[in-house]
Every structure is written in C-alpha cells, then in structure tokens.
Amino acid sequence: MRVQIMNEDRISLINEREDQSNTIAVSIRGVSKTFVSTRKIVQALHPVDLEVATGEFVCFLGPSGCGKSTLLSIIAGLEEASSGSVWANGKKVKGPGTDRIQLFQEAALFPWLDVQHNVEFGLKQIGIPAKKRREIAQKFIERVHLTGFERSYVHQLSGGMRQRAAIARALAIDPEILLMDEPFGALDALTRDRLHVEVESIWSQTRKTILFVTHNVREAVALGDRVIVFAPRPGRIVEEFKIDLPRPRHLEDHNLVDKAAEILQVLKAGMIDSEEESLRGPIH
Amino acid sequence: MAQSINLSRQRTQSRWWLKLLRQIGFFLILLLAWEGLARSGIWPSFLFVGPIDVATSLFSNLQSGVLLTAILTSVSRLAVGYFTSAVLGISLGLFIGLNRYAKETLGSLVLGLQALPSVCWIPLALLWFGLSENAMYYVVIMGALFSIILGVEAGVRHTPPVYLKAARNMGAKGLNLAFFVVLPAALPSIIVGLKQGWTFAWRSLMAAELLYVTVSLGGLLEESRQNIEISQMFSVMVVIIIVGILIDSFIFSPLERTVRTRWGFDQ
User: Fold this and answer.
1) In chain A, what residues touch B185 (CB-CB under 8 Å)?
2) Can you give the residue ranges of every domain in chain B?
3) What is the CATH topology of the domain spanning B45-262?
4) Is A109 a residue whose pLDDT tops 50?
5) Which alpha helices (DSSP H) does A47-188 contain, by range?
C-alpha cells in the first residue's frame, strides 16, 4: 500500500526504517501540562515518561480529566507541553506533522466535502496530483468498506461510517503513528465492536503504531498490547499492564474479562485516591 | 408500521394543499376588497387606484420595455455593487476573524459602522460621486459590507476547533487553511451575513435611485410621483417586491437550505 505514493527516495527511507524494527516510535520525556487562568492553576498532567515501540498498540485508559487526551494532543503537536519533550520517529515534536495523524471522537470530517474529497484532503495538502489522489482515496475507502459512499456528505453517514471515513482519511496520508482520541466513544456497542475488529485488522496488516485513548476498560484490553492506566486530579499514570492475550480477541473471552476486572480495580483505586485528595483540599 | 408512515405523509401533503388554498383565498379577498375600495370613491382616483388599473399599467410598461430596462438597471447595479462588497467583506471578515489585533481595532470600527442605517451613506455618496453610477455602486457596497464582514467574522470565530486541528494535522496552513478550511467551516454564518447584506443593499439602492432619476426601479417610482401616475407607482412597488422575493427564493434561500442540511443543522 505504501508504494502507491512513494518515489524511490521514500521507498529507500521506508526500508531503512523497517530494518530497524523494534525501534522507538514515540518517546515521552517529562511531559507535563499546566493550564493557567486568571483564577487558578490546574495541573492537567503530572510529568510523564513513556516509550512506545514501533508497531505497538498502546491504550491510554482513564476517566475524564486524567490528562490522557491532553497527552495525545501533545504527541500530535496540536497542543504544547508545559515541560518536557516528545520525540516521534527520532525527531523532536515541534508541531503537527503528517507522520502522526490524530482521529477524534467527533470524526471531524469536513461537512462541505464528500467522503471522497475528505479522504483526499491530506493528499492535496502535500501536493499529490488529482488522478493519483483519486486512486489512493478509492483504495482506502474500499479498505474501510465505504465503497458506494464516495459522493455522500457527512450528514448522510451514520456515526460508525463517519469514523470509517475518518480512518480512511488518516490512512491515506500513510502516517507512521495513528493517534486515536476516543474515536468510538459516541458509538453504540455493536458498531463499536465491528470497528474494533476493523482497527485490529488494519493494525495487523499495516503495523502502524497506534496510541488509543479510551475510558472503556474492555475496549482497552481488547485492543492494546499495553494498557496505560491514568488517574485524575492531577492527571498522571498510575500503572501499566502488558496484555499478552492472543489475537483476534473476543470481548466474551474469560481471560479478557478477568484482565479487564483486574485493571478496573486499579482504575477505581486511582479515582478514590484523587477524590480523597480533592476532599482534603489542593496540595501546593 | 409502514401504513402509519404512509398515513402521516398523506396528512402533511393535504395540509400543504390546504395552506396554499387558504393563502390564495386570502389574497383573492384582499384584491377584491382593494378593487372595491378603489371604486367606492372614498379617495380621488389620482391618489388611489385598484388592482385592475395597476395591472394595466404594469402590462403597458412591460410592453413598452421601460419596466424591463428599469429592472435590468437596478439589478445590475445591485449585482456589481454586491459582488464587490462580498469580495471586500469576505476578505476583511477573514482578516478580522483570524487576527486578534485586527479584531480589537478594525472589528470595533465595523461594529460601530454597522449601527449606522445603510441609507445614511446616500448623502455622502452623492457628495463624493455626484449623481452617477458610481454613487449607486457605493451605496450598494456600503449597504452590504458591514453585515457581510460581521457574518464572516462570527463564522470564523465559531468554527469548531476540531476542524482546524484535523486540518493542521493533515498539513494545511496559511492561506490554504484560511480558504479551504476556515472559510467553508464558517459558511453557515457567512450566508446569514450575505443574506442580511443583500437586503440592506437593496433597500438603500432603492432609496438612492429616488434621488438619481434614471430609468431604474427607484427612478420610475420618483417619476410617477412627479407625474402623479398612481397606477404606475403601485405597479413599480409590486415589481420591487417581486424582484426581492425572486432574488431571495432563487439565490439566498436555496443556498441557505443546502448549507444548513449539509452542515447537519436540520436533523
């Protein structure tokens, strides 16, 4: 699939990269985020250190306000860290880049473009000619099973189809890293299950590094090689779990359910800690 | 289930017909009452005429071609001025919406000028440009400009941040981001501004044409006053209403509807 938009230079670059498999895709060093308003200072994220291997599927799990989405935005380069630095594919992150594409809960498809042109959007930005763009878009629309909906506008698509289109739009750009911010959070359970299967198969075929933010424990266990558990107030990492269950995983599998229960305990403990903390008042 | 869906559809359809029937009935009665009043002799016939005289005058002016010339003159003044105003307004609105300093300075100026009724530009236009086409264009431009600027600016300010994030993430920046993301994202609000702008421009153009008497819609109105041709005056007023309704229902309403559906506001 990569060959589609590559010239020879890029192919050699890719080969180089694939030679160094087991390299680090994302390296997070001492990243924190503090929001300062006139009234108060809110620490959204305590300093975090984390490394993600190339091709790894990592889930950030936690309740709202734990800084997991903030961390993802910082990796995407869409938000600035208050301290520390993020390195992606060996380069320091200084802003958004097409090597890291973020997907949002709202899908963020452009309502003024049809599916085809939404998927072509990123390709247009890097100056790929129209004919080539059409071919690439066509291929990824097919990949996410949206063939026949090329001319549909966003308001004509269901929530699940919107996320599929957003995935196609991201894949078309061929990023090394996919940053998924609760992409299926607004979908019904059945649609979500189907999209899990699809994301897993895309991941296993393309071997892209995926960082997946969710507050759904079972979703995290079903998808991740590793689950990083966050706790709120202040946002921080409390524990991480390696998930060795064989793939494809099934939500009903009792091993998966057990693992999810174990992680849920940690998640709850983290939340109780922070509730007690906030009862005792802020610590300065 | 399917049957009940059919039933409700039939009911809305019959309601739609009833509504039209009621409207036709209302206007028929209105026309009859108008004609009756005109014939009653309460007012002298040089001050008040009935719909039959108005229609006669309308057709004779249509046949002589005067009315068509007048419509074309007024509408082309509106079109040229309005197009200029839209280009200026959209660029300025984008600039003000995207730049904080422009918003603080230029933005407050625009907000102030918007408070000035658009007909108030007419004396200035006549002083600067004399009785000329340029004065008419100026009036139209100033009539529409501030509504358009404010519509664009509001749209830019309320653009969902997630569109900008996604676009920047995919490598859009600078003018590309402004014209292919910010501007279309702001379209619903831009259209509101464009629509308000055209009504303001149309009104002040009609007012300005009363002073600059040429064969135009406003000019014909003023001419009918001078010649005390009441049936022509009424017929020109009717034409002005019809032109307004046509422009609205063939340009602005469909535009607004398309955007509202596509952006998902009508669901």
Assistant:
1) 110, 112
2) 1-42, 45-262
3) MetI-like fold (1.10.3720)
4) yes
5) 68-76, 115-125, 130-143, 159-172
